[in-house]
Design goal:
heterodimer; A: 92 residues; mainly beta; 5-stranded mixed beta barrel; 41% strand; B: 394 residues; alpha/beta; Peroxisomal Thiolase, Chain A, domain 1; 9-stranded mixed β-sheet; two-stranded antiparallel sheet; 15 helices; 35% helix; 20% strand; globular
Chain lengths: 92, 394
């Protein structure tokens, strides 16, 4: 087994908008899979600055990693997690 | 040398919402129907395996659920093994009972699957369902509906691109299975659906709508397994032989992994052990937790070529009066999916069909070779956690 350091970019493999969620998430929200250049494909959420609407995400688009609260709810606001947003979205 | 093992009795509790009943009261009728069907007394049992997935989180009975359930049914003293294997808990329990008898450790063993999901708080139930996935997924709000929509193991959304499947195609298994479930007195949802209704029901996780999803459900099922040569001591009915019962776990896969899917490898291991191929099957119960998954499972189980799933319904091959009926019980969406009971509910249905006891939904001619396919849980790395497949022969 080798340890590999993961970078901050990836490519959107698949995405959907979920309209139901376990306690502690507000709906609707994006759920996605990201292909990392290092090999793995990971499940992820999308940064809150990205509007949750059809057509905003497109499979194959370049994404970059951000860190933010898991969800904007009292239960999850203090939990930080990795999320992805489109590369062209927001600053560098 | 393994002994030949048959199922000599089955029983089920209806599937639905039974708020007033604790786990053990849901299991009791299923267990006693199976014992009576087999002509077996509790004193004849030499081992029992009890499948349940969510009882710890949802009822607070974290340990010894099997012993609690069985004592309430008057079964005590014998070895009891508690089985948690997500939505495949019941078929894993069947495998345990089968191995007890096949190995010669016991002549008669009991397999039970029971689940109580209605606890008056559906968000809590959805949370508990999430917890049968690896924690990093469930903590981020990943759910099974999402997994069927975009998870690489099945990715129905991608099938709209590469196979040209439409939302109407996705609705077809739900419609077919609802008409089967309408004929099943044990089923949770007994109203036949139309394509339009399924498509127009609200979106849960795009592109899956409410009526394409299995719902929250309570239920139980049980089977008595017995050595073939011992069976005549208890019953005049011909045992239904367990030709194979295969259990596998998911594999970590990178995106460029070209190995066959785990549902496929599990089914083909079951075919090989039973000495048959998919073309020999007369009836199938499969794991349509989201109805359109049935279309993918057709190809994964070797029933059609890639992309041809909807044709099996269009050409009426997998309908109740077709050549190879699939989910005659109504499947997970209509019959119901009390997760830790589902594998044995599938087995009950096949045994009834093979004996000619399936009432208005009886397949003609009576099926002689059948298969039940059950799976559950999610792991990091693009695969379900558990795959189980059983082949029965009359």
């Amino acid at each position: 087994m080798d340890e590999i350091e993961l970078g901050r970019t990836g490519k959107l493999y698949s995405h959907t908008i979920a309209h139901v969620a376990p306690q502690g998430f507000s709906t609707p929200f994006f759920q996605v899979f990201i292909d990392l250049p290092e090999g793995p494909r990971v499940f992820a959420l999308v940064g809150s600055e990205c509007p949750v609407e059809p057509g905003v995400l497109e499979d194959g688009m370049e994404m970059r990693l951000i860190v933010e609260p898991l969800a904007d709810t009292p239960e999850r606001r203090d939990l930080l997690t990795y999320k992805y947003i489109p590369m062209r979205h927001g600053g560098s | 040398m393994m002994r030949e093992v048959g199922i000599i009795g089955v029983g089920a509790h209806p599937t639905g919402r039974f708020m007033e009943k604790p786990l053990k009261a849901i299991a009791y009728p299923a267990i006693w129907r199976a014992l009576n069907d087999a002509g077996v007394e509790p004193a004849d049992l030499q081992a029992a395996y009890v499948g349940n997935s969510l009882g710890g989180l949802l009822t607070g009975q974290e340990g010894v659920r099997g012993q609690v359930v069985l004592q309430y049914s008057g079964i005590t003293g014998i070895p009891v093994v508690n089985v948690e294997n997500a939505c495949a808990s019941a078929m894993t329990a069947l495998r345990g009972a089968w191995l007890e008898v096949a190995s010669g450790a016991a002549d008669v063993a009991l397999a039970v699957g029971v689940e109580k999901m209605n606890v008056g708080d559906s968000a809590r139930t959805i949370g508990a369902l999430g917890a049968v996935s690896e924690l990093e997924l469930s903590e981020m709000g990943m759910q099974f509906t999402t997994s069927y929509a975009i998870h690489p193991k099945i990715n129905l959304k991608a099938r709209m691109q590469d196979y040209g499947w439409t939302i109407r195609d996705f609705a077809k298994p739900a419609v077919k299975n609802s008409s089967n479930g309408a004929l099943n007195p044990l089923a949770q949802h007994r109203r036949p659906l139309t394509i339009e209704e399924v498509i127009q029901s609200r979106i849960i996780v795009d592109p899956l709508t409410l009526l394409m999803c299995s719902s929250i459900s309570d239920g139980a099922a049980a089977a008595v397994v017995c050595a073939m040569d011992v069976a005549p001591r208890f019953t005049n009915k011909r045992p239904i032989r367990i030709a194979s019962c295969v259990l596998r776990s998911g594999e970590y896969r990178l995106p460029d992994d070209k190995r066959p899917d785990s549902a496929t490898t599990t089914a083909f291991a079951a075919y090989e052990q039973a000495g048959i191929g998919p073309e020999d099957l007369d009836a199938i119960e499969l794991h349509d937790a989201m109805a359109p998954a049935e279309l993918m499972l057709y190809e994964r189980l070797g029933l059609c070529s890639p992309g041809d799933g909807p044709k099996l319904i269009d050409d009426q091959i997998t309908t109740l009066r077709g050549r190879r009926p699939v989910n005659p019980s109504g499947g997970l969406c209509s019959r119901g999916h009390p997760v830790g009971a589902t594998g044995l509910l599938q087995i009950c249905e096949l045994v009834w069909q093979m004996r000619g006891e399936a009432l208005a939904r009886q397949i003609q001619p009576r099926p002689k070779v059948t298969m039940a396919q059950n799976q559950g849980g999610l792991l990091l790395g693009q695969d379900s956690a558990v795959y189980a497949t059983t082949i029965l022969m009359a």
